[in-house]
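Quick illustration for those who missed Monday's session on complexes.
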Amino acid sequence: MKIVSAEFIKSAYERLHWPTEDYDEISFLGRSNVGKSSLLNSLLQRKALARTSNTPGRTQSINFFLVNSSFYFVDLPGYGYARVSKSVRADWGKMARDYLQDREELVLSIQLVDSRHEPTQLDRQLNEWLLYNDKPHIVVATKADKLSANKLFKQLKVIEKAMPQSKLVAYSAVTGKGREGVWSEIGTALNKTAPY
Ligand SMILES: Nc1nc2c(ncn2[C@@H]2O[C@H](COP(=O)(O)OP(=O)(O)O)[C@@H](O)[C@H]2O)c(=O)[nH]1
Ligand SMILES: [Mg+2]
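Prediction with magnesium ion bound:
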């Protein structure tokens, strides 16, 4: 897909803030520091549209980015960050769950896991929730450049075993590996509802 425009529109802290134009939405979710902002920037070929940082757990809002004036990328807050307070964690759960559960514009969720590690219990729970609730989704294994080809192959097997029913794409925001594969999944999800 050719990216003509990509702009940050807003951060939502409650349902009232969600956009109302009925554009299709692609959501991104995964634990803090997994590479979510980097994936967004890499897909959109923008250096710092979504902020990347080494300080996990900072983004507690749902962030909406309008792409090609026709659909949204939706950056959900990272989960599983131990140092945030209990009330912040509860807010995350509610905000993200409400969004994933109720958002009719959502056509595809992209769940990120770190290619170097076995999926965590939270990763598995989220994946099971997506499957159980029939949410169209793919799993993206991030930071693939940090592993040798051989090690990456092995790790992808580990992830596939933990999430056998989900399509898996390996990604590197550094080399751009997986970019076409992820865009192809996004294109398919968007084309199911509208031609772009
Ligand atoms: N080598 C490498 N580092 C990455 C990649 N993706 C993210 N990172 C690094 O991992 C850290 C967290 O990334 P970020 O995108 O902020 O994660 P987020 O918290 O999920 O949004 C940053 O230091 C990134 O530079 C990748 O594909 N390859
Ligand atoms: Mg981020």
